[in-house]
Amino acid sequence: MLQLSRWKIILVVLSAVFGVLWALPNVLTPAQRDALPSWLPHKTLNLGLDLQGGSYLLLEVDTAALMREQTTNTIEDIRNALKTEGIAGSPGQVRGQIIVRVNDPEQMASAQRVVGRLADVSSGTPNFTVVRQDANTLRLQYADNAAAQQASRAVQQSIEIIRKRVDSEGTKEISISRQGATRIVLQAPGDSDPEALKRQIGQTAKLTFQMVDETVPVEEAQAGRVPPSSILLPQPDRPDEPYVLVRRRVLVSGESLSQASPGFDQNNRPSINFRFNGDGARRFGDATARNIGKRFAIILDGKVISAPVIQSAITGGSGQITGNFTVESATELSNLLNGGALPAPLKVIAQSKVGAGLGEEAVRAGQISLLIGAVAICIFMLIAYGLFGVFAIVGLLLNVLLLVATMTMFQFAMTLPGIAGIILTLAVAVDANVLIYERMRDEQRAGHRAIAAADHGFQRALVSIFDANVTSAISAIIMYSLGSGPVKGFALTLLIGVVTSVFTAIVVTQLLIGWWFRLAKPKSLPI
User: Fold this and answer.
1) Among 37, 168, 257, 518, which residue's beta carbon has the most beta carbons within 10 A?
2) How far is CA 462 from CA 15, 58, 252, 445, 456, in A?
3) Short-list 127, 22, 134, 151, CA closest to 74
4) What are residue 304's phi and psi, to 5 degrees?
């Protein structure tokens, strides 16, 4: 065990070099970091929300609105599919369930097949089955987990879209994580305005292009006579025409946009320039070619931005959205469209702001507590084990260096509970040294020579050390997987600390004691 193996020496030296290089930028000023050669690390520790200050939002995906939209889309898909197949029928909603009434009972089998083909099978099994309720009626029976799967996908999509909106360039150290089935936690260190964050992420930004229904006057639609295949939407920017009746069927949606950017129209008013991808350009060109002379509506989040007349087929795949925009609103909307539409509205459950001053106080408190803990541990090891206590302290210093370097390298967020995790890591590392040294004492009392006592001490303490650290690692993994926020910060530092503690307590301390034996050739152990 105490042999000075070449691989151990190389491993310890490389670890020390790694620790120094990656931890060094944390003690340098910004000017000194900029002066470092380009091949050296320049990153510093990523401070969490509680240390740096910033904004915290707890969001919830509106699953009820998600299911309402899903039901509406399914009904419209059924209506179009039946019409395409020449089946006379009328889908609708009765007490939350989709009911399809077929005029001709002889077409029921065909209608059942057509409707069944619309079931979503992306999860491997259909999200609904079609049940024949009576001679003229079909009922869609949703799977028990269909709503949960839909909500789960919506949450995951929302996380990615929020990340694009808040950190489109990937340069901000934001934290976006899932909490429970339908909630999202957003932490933005350094951003002290949660209201601005809410405005940035709160808009659904769902853009659609739909034809205007001119078969029914708007006044009749406002009186309640809205055709089943159409919907009455507000048009806020046109007080002379506050509402527009549009077809439910979507020609092209914002999902087909490849780019949106702010610009100016021919009258030098702010506008939004957009370009479709290949499939979107083809569908938009076909739709405009079939409807020359008719109006189509550009709809954002259920409101009509504009409803121009199609003068000619728009086949270039690009266009311009005009409206009552300012330069700021056009830029903001362009960013939202580029980030994608949220699958469902988000509700703010809780929000808070951590001031920079409070963050500085937390940093100082964490530093003081870490320093006090480290000094107390060092004093104890020196008093209890003398020279071997010095070896343990050297291992502890390398342990902290490796932990800080690892967190800096991977840009893990350092939180106040994370500092507590570092203190616990020091205690766990010392515990490993105490086990080894006490085992050495027992071996020496049993009459073994110094070299044999030290060697047996390491060998026989290994089992206990590995058992203790494996259980700590399992606990940290569970906390990180199931926890959020402060719990994750604590678990992360604890998990990294377990690895570095085992390495420094066994390999580094063993190497130092081996060198000491080679140089001093002692007859007894000084512990």
Assistant:
1) 257
2) 21, 45, 65, 20, 10
3) 127
4) -80, 115
In this prediction, residue 171 carries a pLDDT of 44
Q: Is residue 182 part of a domain?
A: no
Which domain CATH number covers 81?
A: 3.30.70
Alpha helices in 260-353 (DSSP H): 278-290, 327-339
- The reply to whether the predicted model has a pTM over 0.70 is no
Comparing CA positions, the residue from 207, 176, 475, 486 lying closest to residue 333 is: 207
Domain shared by 359 and 461, yes or no: yes
Give the Å distances, CA to CA, from 327 to 168, 270, 271, 299, 320: 20, 6, 8, 20, 15
CA distances from 318 to 39, 261, 313, 459 (A): 44, 11, 12, 72
Structure tokens at 520: 């001093």
Structural domains in the chain (count): 3
Domain range enclosing 81: 65-139
pLDDT tens, 508-521? Answer: 988 998 888 888 88
Q: Around Cβ 66, how many Cβ atoms within 10 Å?
A: 21
With respect to residue 176, please indicate whether it lies within any of the assigned structural domains. Answer: no
Residue 298 pLDDT more than 60?
A: yes
Whole-number Å distance between alpha carbons of 458 and 396:
17
Residue 152 included in any domain: no
User: How big is the CA angle at 232 (ends 226 and 237), to the nearest 5 degrees?
Assistant: 150
Report the alpha-carbon distance of residue 446 to residue 196 in Å, rounded. Answer: 70
Q: What is the pLDDT of residues 328-362, one digit of tens each?
A: 878 877 777 776 777 788 888 888 876 655 556 76
CATH of the domain at 310: 3.30.1360.200
Give the residue from 76, 71, 74, 84 showing the smallest Cα distance to 111. 84
